[in-house]
Amino acid sequence: MALKSPVDFAGSISSGQKHPCCFGVAGCNRSRCVRYDKKSRTCRLVTRAISVDRPQLDFSNPDWKKQFQEDFNRRFSLPHLKDVIDVEPRPTTFSLKSRSPLENVNGSMQGSWNGYVNDDDRALLKVIKFASPTSAGADCIDPDCSWVEQWVHRAGPRKQIYFEPQYVKAGIVTCGGLCPGLNDVIRQIVLTLEKYGVKNIVGIQHGFRGFFEDHLAEVPLSRHVVQNINLAGGSFLGVSRGGANISDIARRLDMLFVLGGNGTHAGANLIHEECRKRKLKVSIVGVPKTIDNDILLMDKTFGFDTAVEAAQRAINSAYIEAHSAFHGIGLVKLMGRSSGFITMHASLSSGQVDICLIPEVPFTLDGPNGVLRHLEHLIETKGFALICVAEGAGQEHLQQSNATDASGNMILSDIGVHLHQKIKSHFKEIGVHSDVKYIDPTYMVRAVRANASDAILCTVLGQNAVHGAFAGFSGITTGICNTHNVYLPIPEVIKSTRFVDPNSRMWHRCLTSTGQPDFH
Ligand SMILES: Nc1ncnc2c1ncn2[C@@H]1O[C@H](COP(=O)(O)OP(=O)(O)OP(=O)(O)O)[C@@H](O)[C@H]1O
Ligand SMILES: O=P(O)(O)OC[C@H]1O[C@](O)(CO)[C@@H](O)[C@@H]1O
Ligand SMILES: [Mg+2]
């Protein structure tokens, strides 16, 4: 079986099917609907509908909540090795009481230590009871916004494990673009595997390519090798985009830890399905990596905080330039192909941004309500202005090519360059002096090492990934939901990209802070 190649993606787009960033059945998740917008060629949050979820519920039926919960529990149950093969658990070798896991080999060290997670422990996915679908950011199942408990599985070490550590060969692979914290996660996976007693740990070089390109040899990993890798940004193992043949991946390893975004998780799930089909005792566990913070259901993905912090430096420089110049206009473009989280959060935290533009909120440039008119107003009233724009914003204003990257992601036209030119020519046309400074810190923002809060998040995620594999789960990923650490089945997190909700309090806070009007 082959991973989707760029050709498959291009084919699926031209034949009118779903864009690869609109993974999933309907491109919808509960009260939000995600569609591929042909004009802008991005996935967009296009409607707010009440309950577009499966199953089709009849809210007049007194049992609808029960039906919903049954469906939810089915979808969020975690695939386990014992679903398809006969495997017996054994007492865990993970103990913080002994120096070496081998001292713990018969499970006698477990004693009364309360450090294990029970398989029936759950965390609540939704914690707000919205009174009405019109409440800001409301995420309702039925028109009355009834409260329905939605429990997901708690992450962490179990008392019983499904692998003999001394016979385990574990692999780690990092795919997609770079993200601060990749090395921290690799390191934590290795340290935790060793704590269980695993000796055979390998890194796969340059993403999925490392599985099928002969010159990319496996890299032996140990505490000694990874001890200091978190002190630098990037990925110790290298990353890549592009297709791969996964038919052999399954047979080579007992555990595979896959660090990547939506695309990588789709690939990881294919590997998991292949292992299930062949009844192989292989555990595939994902760790969501996306600087864009665009993975469904999770509070936040690692590297995002660091990226926002790094973006501050660019915004601050743009501010200084704009503020010091006569009629200065600072323009900063930040990453975010489909989602504007980095741009929104960086704008919010800097406090200096006058105009924040994200892919989820279309805007006009010209006319009385356009961005350019507002810029004139800012120059008139405060003498300078600062714009922060996400790379995926305003694609409808640009000429599109049909180019895709090796993974099939659309190559977007440069909104930063376009805005730069439009602003300069607009002020020239109206005979008002302007001094526009454009800063594109794209790769500087993601090549840095993780900050303290991301380093902690990476620690939690890396360790939980290993606990999940030893617990016998496969086809899962680990994340943080409502501050709780959980395991989720991969298909549930790749149904669509996560978008900034234009009706959320956070976006409204951003608008309050910038003071920008609706650009319509
Ligand atoms: N739908 C898919 N099915 C299987 N494999 C996929 C799919 N989409 C992407 N992949 C594979 O996953 C890997 C990474 O994909 P991609 O480059 O899109 O990065 P990503 O994981 O989405 O992370 P990023 O957030 O950096 O974009 C590539 O090797 C690609 O071939
Ligand atoms: O240029 P590269 O390495 O393909 O990565 C760029 C992309 O990575 C992302 O951050 C996703 O991880 C996008 O926002 C961005 O367009
Ligand atoms: Mg992607």
From TrEMBL:
**Keyword terms:** Allosteric enzyme, ATP-binding, Glycolysis, Kinase, Magnesium, Metal-binding, Nucleotide-binding, Transferase
Q: Which cellular component terms (GO) are annotated to the entry?
A: cytoplasm
Give me the reactions it catalyses. Answer: beta-D-fructose 6-phosphate + ATP = beta-D-fructose 1,6-bisphosphate + ADP + H(+)
Q: Which InterPro entries match?
A: ATP_PFK (IPR022953), PFKA (IPR050929), Phosphofructokinase_dom (IPR000023), PKF_sf (IPR035966)
Q: Write down the superkingdom of origin.
A: Eukaryota
- Metal-binding keyword on record: yes
Domain Phosphofructokinase: start-end pairs: 170-467
Task: Quote the Pfam families the UniProt record gives.
Answer: PFK
> Which cofactor is recorded for it?
Mg(2+)
One Gene Ontology biological process: fructose 6-phosphate metabolic process
A single MF term (Gene Ontology): 6-phosphofructokinase activity
Q: Where is the signal peptide?
A: none
Query: PANTHER family, from UniProt?
Result: ATP-DEPENDENT 6-PHOSPHOFRUCTOKINASE 1
So what does this one do? Catalyzes the phosphorylation of D-fructose 6-phosphate to fructose 1,6-bisphosphate by ATP, the first committing step of glycolysis.
Q: What is this protein called?
A: Phosphofructokinase domain-containing protein
